[in-house]
Amino acid sequence: MKWRRPSPGGEIRLEALRERGCGCRSSKPCAHEVAAWLALLLDIGPAPEEGLEDLRRLEAQLEQRTTVELLRLARLRGWSLPRGRKPELARRLAARLFLHFRLGLWREELDPALEGLLGLIRLLGDERVDLEDLETRWIRWTGGERRAFRQIWNRAIRKGLLIPCALGHETRPRPHAHLAAALEISALPAPVFPITVYRGFPSDRIVAAPPIAPLLREARRGMLPQRFRITLRVHPRARTFPWLWGWLHDAEEVEALLARHPWGPPPYEWITVPVSWLASETVEAMVERIGLPWEGAAFLVEAMWRLSGTPLGESFPASSAMEEADDGEIMDQLWRLWQSGATLFEILWLQRRDPTVRLLRSIGWVGGMEQLYYEWGLGRQILIRLLSGLPDEWVDWTDVARALEAAQPPGFAGPSLDRPWRLVRGHPVQEPLPLAEHVRAYLEGSLFWLGAVALAYEGDALRAFRLTPRGRRWVRGETDADAPLSGGALERVSLPETQWLDERTWSVRPGPESARLLGLSSRLGRPMGSPFVFTLDEARIETVLREGYRPEEILALFEASGLSPTPTLRQALQDAWARLSRVQAFENITLLETDDPLILQELLAATSLGSAILGWLAPNLVILEESALERLWKEMRDRGYYPTIVWG
After folding, report:
1. CA 112, chain centre distance (Å)
2. What is the distance in angstroms between the CA of the first residue and the CA of the last residue of the chain?
3. Of 360, 363, 201, 196, which is closest to residue 268 (Cα–Cα)?
């Protein structure tokens, strides 16, 4: 079928384009303008300027190939190219390939093997692909063999989907390939991996987060303090050490490191990036006033601090970045913040479950926290691409974790030794944190409190998750804030009621009206998977009583909140109180007493007081290690506290 260039308002015959690429039958090279305008007329691509830029990039990629390879690529597709100089062949072939990709004809050539390879490339999100690295990931991802991968790789090159190049690496070049410039990462097939889909769960096993935006709106109405403060202690000489510039650090650990290496630590040393400073009195204020569990309050405090743009150590407004925004805009701001990688809440979430978890970074890694956030941002983008291809069903969360373990993408915990940061657990012997735990921190931590996923539990173990309507819109990149958010089966998910589930287990409905009960429950009981369900924990009961609570106060609070205390709760409080009420004699002890319990909480956040406490006698009275007194006295004076020391 003969094809002619369309006149204004003329008809375009797609059949001819399928057979002849751009359709030009002239012996002259195809013009860039023709390809760009064809894409525009067919409404299949971007504006002409952007199309021309992609076309130039595709030409540059093809010019790296030999003339024989260019002719072979054209012959495979049945395209006849006139003999001539290599630049003209590259221009002509680039125009044909450009239209071939923009029209989407390349999808008709794909088979399951090619779709799997391109899906893995899309998941990793890099247009420049390392052959050996991709081969290793593909073998883990599919369980296939090296020979099968090389066959698929060569087929992708012969079809022009990948264009080879060579990059220097140490003493030998490593084979690389570029994704064809006219192909966008987002246009590649979605990554496919085995998943377990559940038809549904009983409503009492499904947990969804409360709407966060209305709670922030309540914060603007004066429910929270007008200004918050997050304080981080820094080493007095931090500015003199380049390896501390821009990094959060523990002043005591830095001092110990300098004691071992007076002339400066070597670059192979590792140092902790602390996150405990997030657990400040501000979080406690959020729990007590707004009615969220501790984890939800910590998530909101970090989010509001990040959005305020205020440096550490200075007070910041409760929601300065959200004054004029509606609920949808507030949630979109929080999503973009999480997407960027600039949050540490997940590490805090892990430490709440295992206090030995630590985030380490190499001394030789320069660039500050922004480098760490950049790597985490890459990992979160990969997680988003993986979630975007999931069905609108309940999915076993371990399948997602196994897929990521196979791909070993950047930005996630794991055993890899070639990255400048690590997540470890255990003391004194450390081991790498499994990648599955990092994924779980995202699902049960950030994504849950953002309202992007709903969770289903079996007992206290996470079983499955499902994207909410808002979460599906986010992971698919939809920007219409007015898109319908109805969620079918998810509409039936409701927050738990405040009630006893059995003699030892109870649930609390989040909200300002139950703030005191929720705050006490998170300290008195152990969360049962869901952050709103608690079970009695004898060790925590003793800790609460040591802080100054009395059994009758706890029972009265439960009664006032509509939870009549069970015999098991009464007995547990009586037994713990009896153990603590036995006569104890202390000799030569050091006490710290404050006029107000809140002052003691400020000292815990601003100094190393927590590591020196041996016991609590009251909310404003603690027993200290005598050896730590001089150090604490100096820290308090440095931060504007002037304690009175009484001997005797």
Report:
1. 31
2. 106
3. 363
